[in-house]
Design brief:
heterodimer; A: 638 residues; alpha+beta; six-stranded mixed sheet; four-stranded mixed sheet; 18 helices; 25% helix; 16% strand; globular; B: 320 residues; mainly alpha; two-stranded antiparallel ribbon; 13 helices; 2 strands
Chain lengths: 638, 320
C-alpha cells in the first residue's frame, strides 16, 4: 500500500471511532427509576442555639433474654380489612385497604429511598442464601419466625407461638394460618423445612455455616457431607407445625429464629435458591415484593398486596439507589434519600448533624448490635503469653480520653468488659472496671514485672487494623499512642485489607500477633457474644474454666438466673485474664428526614431510647411519610 | 505488511499467555479467598465446601490449565460477584457503558487538548500560552474524584442545572437518543487530566516542529501559515505525540472507578477494584487480559501509524 493510502485509512479509522462514540444509543426502555432529583433548600432554620444531641442513653434495665416461651403481645399492626378484589388506589388508603394516619402524605408519596454501596458485592436478597452478599433492602421477601420488640424481647412473627419439650431438645413452632406467597399459594411449614435443609447442604456452601454448628442436630455432620440434609433436626410435622431438634438444650434458640426465614420450597425447586434475584421468578411472603433490579444502579420494591403478615406497610415503594457512600450524606442533605445509617456518616458529617437544629433532632442513636472494639493478641506466643504483659497493655489505654476526644461520645462509650452495658449478663454496675482501667503507673510496674523495664527489650509491634475507615483509624492510632507513651514500647499501626486480616486471624496457629477488631451480636443471648471467646473460636486465647462456664450455661434450661450468673462469672474471667483488651462499645444510629415518621423509632422504649432498634423489622410496617413532605422539594415532587 | 502484522499478533498472544501466568500466580498468593469470615470462624468442613464450590480445592496447576483451556474457547467462567451471568456477558454489558464514557472522554480530551496545545504553541509567550500552561498544570495535579465532587456540588446541588449522577437516565435526555445531561459532568471530570497531558505534548511537539529548518524554508517560500500547519507541522508533530499519547486511549476506555462510583455510572471501572477486594478470580483474570489485549493492540496501531506518518521509517522500526 502506498504511504498516502495508509495515511487515509488511518484517518478514516480515527474518524469512524469518533462518530461511533458520539452516536451513543439510548438506554434500553425501562420504567423510569425514582431518579433522585435536585431539591430546593428548606426554610432557613431559626438562629437559636443548636439543641443538645440525643444523650447517650443510660442503660438502667438489661433487656431480659427469652425465658420459657411466653411470647409477649405483638405490637398493634394496622388492621387490614379483607379486600374482595384489589382496591383502586385512593390517596389516603394503602394497597391493603387500611387508612393512612391523618398526618400522612397521599399514598403515592409514601416512598422511601436509601443509598446502596456501589462497590458492594451483592448476589441475593436472602439471608438464607448468602449472608455477606445481600442486596440492599434485603430480607423483606419473607417474615422470619420471630422478631424483636423495642426492648429486645422475642415476639411472634410468622410463628404465632412456640414451646419446648421437657428435655429442652425439641422446639415446636406453630406457623400462623393464612399467610401466603405473592402468587396466592399458602405459606406452610414445608417451606421452612426445605429452607433449613438447604442451609447445611455442602453444595450450597453457606457462608454463615458456623451459626447452627453445635446447635441443630446433625448440622455438623451434614456440613461435612457425612449425612444427607434430610437428617437435619428440622421437621414439618404438618402444614403449620415446625419442629426443631437441637443437639444440646439451647435456651437461646427462639432468639436465633430472628433469622428463621423461609424461602419458597416451590420456587427453590423450580428456579434454584437465587429465584429472588430475578423479577420474573421472585416470590414474596413478606411485606414487599421485587419490582425492579438493576444491580449497580437501582433496586425497587413495592408493597406486596398479597401480604397477610403482621407488618403490612404504609409505604408504597422502597428504592435503593447505588452510590458511592462518600457522597451519601450530601445526597441526604439534598433530600435525594430518606435514611442514612451511621456507618456512612463521617466525623465531619456528624459534626454538621450535631450542630444543625433539624438534623440533630432526627439522628437516633441506639445500641445497634452491641458492637465492642477490642485489641486481640496471640496469647500462645511471646510477648503476650505473659499475663503481666497483657494486663500492662490493658492498663495503659486511656479509654475515657480517647472516647471523649477522638471517637466522641455520640459514637461510642469506653469499654472495660466485653458485653456492652444493656446486653444480657452485662456488667451494668461496672464492677469489672478496675480490672482493665487506665492506670499508667500500675501498667509500668506490670511490664517491669514481666521483665521489660520501661519497655526495654520489648519487641517492636505492628497493630493490624481490619480495613477501618478514617474515624476508627484515628481511634486505634490513639490507642497505640496511649500504650506507647505509657509503656515505652514501639507500636506501628497498619490498616490491612479485610480478607488479609481475617485470613491471618482465623489461621490455626494464628498469624496475627496484635490487632484491633470488633464484634457485634448475632442474637441477643450471652451464649452468642461470649461464645466467640471459646478456645475453639477465632481468638488465640484459652481458659478451661471460661470454656466450661460458657458451654454449661449455654445449655442450662432449669435456672435462668443461675445461667446469667454463670455468664457473668465467665466474663469476669475473660476480663481478668485479658483475653482481649476492650476499648469501646459503639453507639449505632440512624439519620432520618424530618418528614419520615413512625412510632417504632420516634417513640422511646422502656428505658427511654427512641430509635430503630436492631431486630425491629416490624418497623417496615410502621414507617410513613408525613404531610410536611409536600412543602419540601424532594425527589417525590419534582 | 501482512507478514509483519501476523508476527505482531502472534507475539501479542504470547504476551497474553505470560500475563495470565503472572496474574494467576499473584492473585492466588494473596491471602483470603472469595468467602467472608467476618464473624466467627467457619468450621473446616464448611470452608472446604465453599472452596469446592468455587473450584478452588484442586491443585493449583490443574486450576490454571482448566481455566486457560476454557479461556481459549472464550469461556472465562462465572464471576463470583454475579453468579447469574458469565464473565463475558458481564464485561460486555458493563464495558458497553464504560466504552461510551471513555470514547467521549477521548474525543473531548484529544480534540480540546490538541486545539489548545496548537494555539498555545503558535501564540507562544502570550497570555493564551500562559493560560493553557496553567490549566494543564491544574489538570495534571488535581485528582479526578476531587474535581468530580466539586462539579457535583457546583452544578448539581448548587446551580441545579445538571443531574448528580446516573447514565442515560430517561429523565435526563436533552435531545433524546443524541445528547444526555448525564454525559456532561462525568466526561468533564474524566477528561481534565488527559486533556492537560495532550495539550502539553501538543504544544511541545508543535513548538519543536515550528523551529525546524523546513518550516523556515516554507515561510521564506511564501507559504501561508495555514498551509504550513496542515502540510508540514502537524504531520511532523504527530510522530512523537502518537507514541506518547496513544496509550492514554486504552487507559480511558477501560474506565475509572472514581468517576463511575461518584457519578453512579454502572460501568466496568468498579469491577477492577471490587474484583480484587472480593477475590473474584475469574473476573480479575478476564479484566487483566482485557487490558493487556487493549494495550497490545494500541501499541501495534501506534507502530503502524508511525510508519504511516514518517515515510523514512520502515515497518519494524528501521530507517530507510
Amino acid at each position: 500500500m502506498s504511504k498516502n493510502r495508509e495515511w487515509i485509512v488511518l484517518c478514516l479509522i480515527v474518524l469512524l471511532s469518533m462518530i461511533v462514540s458520539a452516536c451513543a444509543p439510548a438506554a434500553t426502555p425501562a420504567p423510569p427509576p425514582a431518579a433522585p432529583k435536585a431539591a430546593e433548600p428548606t426554610k432557613a432554620p431559626e438562629p437559636t442555639k443548636a439543641p443538645e444531641p440525643t444523650k447517650a442513653p443510660e442503660p438502667t434495665k438489661a433487656p431480659e433474654p427469652t425465658k420459657a416461651p411466653e411470647p409477649t403481645k405483638a405490637p398493634e399492626p394496622t388492621k387490614a380489612p379483607e379486600p374482595t378484589k384489589a382496591p383502586a388506589p385512593v390517596a389516603d388508603t394503602t394497597v391493603f385497604g387500611a387508612k393512612l394516619p391523618t398526618d400522612a402524605a397521599p399514598y403515592n408519596m409514601q416512598t422511601w429511598v436509601e443509598p446502596c454501596d456501589i462497590k458492594g458485592n451483592h448476589i441475593t436478597f436472602d439471608f438464607q442464601v448468602q449472608v455477606y452478599q445481600r442486596f440492599c433492602l434485603g430480607d423483606l421477601f419473607q417474615d422470619q419466625l420471630v422478631n424483636l420488640d423495642k426492648d429486645f424481647n422475642v415476639i411472634p412473627n410468622s410463628a404465632e407461638k412456640w414451646e419446648v419439650s421437657k428435655d429442652g431438645l425439641t422446639w415446636t413452632f406453630y406457623i400462623k394460618k393464612g399467610l401466603q406467597w405473592s402468587d396466592g399459594t399458602p405459606l406452610t411449614a414445608q417451606d421452612y423445612e426445605a429452607t433449613f435443609r438447604y442451609l447445611p447442604d455442602p453444595k450450597h456452601a453457606w457462608d454463615f455455616a458456623w451459626f447452627y454448628a453445635g446447635v441443630l442436630k446433625n448440622w455438623d455432620e451434614i456440613v461435612a457431607g457425612e449425612k444427607p440434609t434430610t437428617e437435619l433436626g428440622v421437621k414439618a410435622v404438618d402444614d403449620y407445625t415446625l419442629q426443631f431438634t437441637t443437639k444440646v438444650p439451647w435456651p437461646a434458640f427462639p432468639a436465633m429464629m430472628q433469622f428463621g426465614f423461609g424461602l419458597s420450597k416451590k420456587q427453590m425447586e423450580k428456579y434454584g435458591p437465587l429465584y429472588n434475584s430475578k423479577v420474573e421468578t421472585s416470590l414474596s411472603s413478606g411485606p414487599f415484593k421485587l419490582a425492579k433490579l438493576e444491580p449497580g444502579k437501582t433496586i425497587e420494591l413495592v408493597a406486596n398486596d398479597k401480604y397477610k403478615g403482621f407488618r403490612p406497610p404504609k409505604l408504597q415503594k422502597l428504592t435503593a439507589v447505588y452510590m458511592d457512600m462518600s457522597t451519601a450524606f450530601a445526597a441526604f442533605q439534598n433530600k435525594e434519600i430518606d435514611h442514612l445509617g451511621y456507618e456512612a456518616i463521617s466525623p465531619a458529617d456528624m459534626d454538621i448533624i450535631q450542630k444543625d437544629p433539624v438534623l440533630s433532632k432526627n439522628y437516633f442513636p441506639h445500641f445497634g448490635d452491641f458492637r465492642t472494639d477490642y485489641l486481640v493478641m496471640d496469647t500462645y506466643n511471646k510477648p503476650f503469653n505473659d499475663i503481666n504483659v497483657r494486663k500492662a497493655f490493658a492498663k495503659a489505654v486511656d479509654r475515657e480520653s480517647i472516647v471523649k476526644n477522638v471517637l466522641t461520645p455520640i459514637k461510642g462509650m469506653p469499654a472495660y468488659a466485653f458485653l456492652m452495658p444493656g446486653y444480657p449478663a452485662s456488667d451494668k454496675e461496672r464492677k469489672l472496671k478496675d480490672l482493665q482501667n487506665y492506670d499508667c503507673k500500675a501498667a509500668k510496674d506490670l511490664l517491669a514485672k514481666a521483665g521489660y523495664l520501661d519497655g526495654k527489650g520489648f519487641p517492636k509491634l505492628e497493630m493490624w487494623l481490619r480495613n477501618e475507615g478514617p474515624a476508627w483509624q484515628a481511634v486505634f492510632q490513639a490507642v497505640a499512642a496511649s500504650i506507647s507513651s505509657c509503656l515505652g514500647v514501639q507500636i506501628d499501626v497498619s490498616n490491612k485489607d479485610y480478607k488479609v486480616y481475617m485470613d491471618a486471624l482465623n489461621a490455626k496457629p494464628t498469624k496475627l500477633t496484635f490487632g484491633a477488631v470488633s464484634y457485634g451480636m448475632d442474637f441477643l443471648d450471652p451464649s452468642n457474644m461470649l461464645g466467640i471467646w471459646l478456645s475453639t473460636g477465632r481468638h488465640s486465647w484459652k481458659n478451661d474454666q471460661f470454656d466450661k462456664l460458657v458451654k454449661d450455661a449455654s445449655s442450662l434450661t432449669a435456672d435462668p438466673a443461675k445461667r446469667m450468673q454463670m455468664f457473668m462469672d465467665a466474663e469476669k474471667i475473660l476480663v481478668d485474664d485479658v483475653g482481649g483488651i476492650f476499648i469501646d462499645h459503639r453507639w449505632a444510629g440512624d439519620l432520618f428526614q424530618p418528614y419520615i415518621l413512625g412510632d417504632c423509632f420516634r417513640k422511646p422504649d422502656s428505658i427511654g431510647v427512641a430509635a430503630w432498634h436492631w431486630g425491629n423489622d416490624w418497623c417496615w410496617g410502621d414507617f410513613y411519610v408525613s404531610k410536611d413532605v409536600m412543602n419540601v422539594k424532594t425527589y417525590r415532587n419534582k | 505488511m501482512a507478514r509483519y502484522l501476523v508476527g505482531r499478533l502472534l507475539s501479542l498472544v504470547f504476551v497474553l499467555f505470560v500475563v495470565s501466568l503472572i496474574t494467576f500466580t499473584l492473585m492466588r498468593s494473596v491471602p483470603g479467598g472469595p468467602f467472608d469470615e467476618g464473624k466467627q470462624r467457619l468450621p473446616d468442613a464448611a470452608k472446604a465446601n465453599i472452596l469446592r464450590k468455587y473450584g478452588l480445592d484442586q491443585p493449583i496447576h490443574v486450576q490454571y490449565v482448566k481455566y486457560m483451556w476454557s479461556a481459549l474457547h472464550l469461556d472465562f467462567g462465572i464471576p463470583y460477584q454475579v453468579p447469574t451471568e458469565t464473565v463475558t456477558s458481564l464485561i460486555a454489558k458493563t464495558w458497553f457503558i464504560t466504552f461510551q464514557v471513555g470514547m467521549m472522554t477521548v474525543t473531548l480530551a484529544f480534540g480540546t487538548g490538541i486545539l489548545l496545545g496548537a494555539i498555545a504553541a503558535y501564540r507562544r509567550g502570550s497570555w493564551i500560552d500562559t493560560g493553557v500552561t496553567f490549566l494543564s498544570m491544574l489538570g495534571t495535579t488535581l485528582p479526578n474524584f476531587v474535581v468530580a465532587l466539586w462539579l457535583i456540588l457546583g452544578f448539581a446541588y448548587g446551580l441545579k442545572i445538571l443531574p448528580s449522577g446516573g447514565w442515560n437516565e430517561p429523565n435526563d435526555w436533552l435531545i433524546p437518543g443524541v445528547f444526555s445531561k448525564n454525559w456532561v459532568l462525568p466526561v468533564l471530570a474524566y477528561a481534565l487530566l488527559p486533556m492537560a497531558v495532550v495539550a502539553r505534548y501538543t504544544r511541545a511537539s508543535i513548538v519543536d516542529a515550528l523551529q525546524s529548518d523546513y518550516v523556515r524554508t516554507a515561510r521564506a517560500k511564501g507559504l501561508r501559515d495555514r498551509s504550513i500547519l496542515t502540510r508540514h507541522v502537524l504531520k511532523n508533530a504527530a510522530i512523537p505525540m502518537v507514541t506518547a499519547l496513544g496509550p492514554i486511549i486504552p487507559d480511558l476506555i477501560t474506565g475509572s472507578i472514581f468517576i463511575e462510583a461518584v457519578f453512579r455510572i454502572p460501568g466496568l471501572g468498579k469491577y477492577f477494584v471490587t474484583s480484587t477486594f472480593n477475590r473474584d478470580y475469574p473476573m480479575i483474570m478476564a479484566l487483566i487480559l482485557l487490558i493487556a489485549l487493549l494495550w497490545g493492540v494500541t501499541y501495534i496501531i501506534t507502530d503502524l501509524a508511525y510508519v504511516a506518518l514518517d515515510p523514512r521509517v520502515r515497518l519494524g522500526g528501521t530507517m530507510k
